[in-house]
Amino acid sequence: QVQLVESGGGLVQAGGSLRLSCAASGRTFSSNAMGWFRQAPGKEREFVAAIRWNGRSTYYAEFVKGRFTISGDNAKNTVYLQMNSLKPEDTAVYYCAADHTVAYYPPNDLRRYDYWGQGTQVTVSS
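and the corresponding structure tokens:
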């Protein structure tokens, strides 16, 4: 069994920063990519950022480009999300995800991912 555990969420004022972390535990596995998604109340889960370990390519949703940075450690199946210049509309539960099987979907598609964390709440006050 694989578990992904997120941490680092919290309450921050608009313009502030947070750094989310996600670490895998349990059964050893190798991933091709890890990503972050978020879900606000009443909305569908949406892509935020992803990193492919081969070549360390990174992908971002348009609404976070220039503000968020994804990084990580392939060997540890650990991924981080540095979030700067936070806005109230960034308020959501943020989920970490990792793939394991053959990737039929691109890194920004949630169907790609096999493992998901429980989520960490990020609240940005105005």
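(Above: one complete record from the training split.) The CA atoms of residues 31 and 100 lie 5 Å apart.
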